[in-house]
Amino acid sequence: MTEILVPSLGESVSSATVARWLKKAGEAVAADEPVVELETDKVTVEVNAPAAGVIESIAAEEGAEVTPGAVLGSIAAGAAAAPPKPAAAAPAQPKVEEKRVPAGPVAVPGAHTPEPLRSVPPMPAAAKLMEENRLTSEQIGPGTGKDGRITKGDVLAFLQRPAAPAAPPAAKPARALEEGEERVRMTRLRLTIARRLKEAQNTAAMLTTFNEVDMGAVMALRSEYRDSFEKRHGVRLGFMSFFVKACVAALKEFPAVNAEIEGEDIIYKNFVHMGIAVGGPSGLVVPVLRNADRMGFAEIEKRIADFGRRARDGALKLEELAGGSFTITNGGIYGSLMSTPILNPPQSGILGMHKIQDRPMVVGGKIEVRPMMYLALSYDHRIVDGKEAVSFLVRVKEAIEDPRRLMLEV
Predict the structure, then answer these.
(1) What are the counts of helices (DSSP H) followed by strands (DSSP E) for the chain?
(2) Are the CB atoms for 382 and 220 separated by under 8 Å?
(3) Residues 335, 354: Cα–Cα separation, whole Å
(4) Hey, how many other C-beta atoms are within 10 angstroms of the C-beta on 148?
(5) How many Cβ atoms sit within 10 Å of the Cβ of residue 124?
(6) CB neighbours of residue 74 within 10 Å
């Protein structure tokens, strides 16, 4: 028998939920064939069969939470499918004959049965103090006086006890659904997105600064070299590579936007690990272009295209989603004209791209229709000053409006 174990889930991921079994008990599997999907707070992970054989048992049903190294199920050697084994039943408990127990103390053979305590009133001084503080004998308990009588000292000792912690509020019962409503439990990924976005709002002193960029020069350059670029590199030339290169240049000039806060320290990074937000089947994920500052246009475009394909297929790896130092998100592909992106903790900056829209602009004293895009930079004001944030966004704007700056690094 070979056990199917939960693999290592990657950096900062301590548990997962069994999302879906791809094989049932009794079904034959080949070695390295996917048998179960696990859903973490970052990505969906497929677990492959460690050996060929037949699924003998399933130890963790769908919806169960599991940790690295836990047993998901087992595989028995053999190629023929066997009928599923019934779930292991809990060991039978010996039948206990129910007896009615009379109220009051129970007599135990050979033991002394104490007489029931008599109800005695508290001492007069204690009674007065109890009345002033609205206390009852049951709250204070047996006293230290004769026959368990409550004394003034007992009341004072009770009043000096630390207050018991308040009980947590009871969970609000789920409301009854109306006709046409459906209740669906949030996925771990969606729960984590919600938690991290709220964490960013509660922790960072987040502000957003805006600018607009004329996309005409980039669009003309892209149109001129699109065919030759794709023929040589096997990938289309998009806008994202221009923005990645522009952000890399601006981050080198303003390193605080690429840094993070840890306790009372600022950690500056001598690299750019660029997070690229892409839409997946369960929500937004942010795979990371590691060392984007060392990449050319073609490599950036290839990596982003690959991220997009694998995000749609749920095939991104956990290590590809960790360690970003700055993020770019493009709401323009969904038609967004303006937004305020939320930081991806512990990062201190995120650039929001938007829809390209023709607008009348004054150019050289004349009104021209230009392809314009609004840009938004959200930043952590604890580490990035307003002047730095505005200047960073101006540098990105200048690089996009004159792409030659990216080639000459000016």
Answers:
(1) 9, 19
(2) no
(3) 7
(4) 15
(5) 9
(6) 18
pLDDT at 295: 94
Active site (catalytic) residues: 381, 385
Residues 6+ apart with CB under 8 A from 249: 395, 399, 405, 406, 409
Could you identify the residue written with the tokens 């990074």? 269
Where are any strands of DSSP class E within 98-217?
Answer: 206-214
Task: Single out the residue of 204, 161, 212, 160 nearest to residue 354, CA to CA.
Answer: 212
Q: Which tokens hold the place of 47?
A: 């677990």
Which DSSP string corresponds to 334-358? Answer: GT-S---PPP-TT-SEEEEE---EE
Fill in the amino acid letter for 347: Q
In one letter, which amino acid is 14? Answer: S
Q: Do 294 and 244 form a contact (C-beta atoms < 8 A)? A: no
34-39/16-21 β-pairing: antiparallel
In angstroms, the Cα distances linking 29 to 22, 38, 54, 83, 319 are: 10, 18, 6, 14, 28
C-alpha 259/C-alpha 359 separation (Å) is 35
Residue-range domains of the chain with CATH: 2-76 (2.40.50.100), 190-408 (3.30.559.10)
- For 189, 268, 283, 289, the CA distances from 271, given in Å and listed in that order, are 28, 9, 28, 11
Close Cβ partners of 13 (under 8 Å, ≥ 6 residues apart): 40, 41, 42, 318
C-alpha count within 13 angstroms, C-beta hemisphere, residue 179: 0
Nearest to residue 370, comparing CAs of 253, 219, 249? Answer: 219
Tell me which residue has tokens 């540098």.
395
Residues with Cβ within 8 Å of residue 151, at least 6 apart in sequence: 122, 123, 125, 126, 143, 144, 145
**Strands 326-330, 349-353: parallel, antiparallel or unpaired by DSSP?**
parallel
**pLDDT tens profile 342-381:** 998 889 999 999 999 999 999 989 999 999 999 999 999 9
Distance CA(273)–CA(297), nearest Å, equals 15
pLDDT tens, residue by residue, 168-182: 566 678 888 888 888
Q: pTM of the prediction?
A: 0.62
Give the burial class of 289: count Cβ atoms within 10 A of its Cβ; 0-12 exposed, 13-18 middle, 19 or more buried: buried
DSSP string, 177-188: PPTT----PPPH
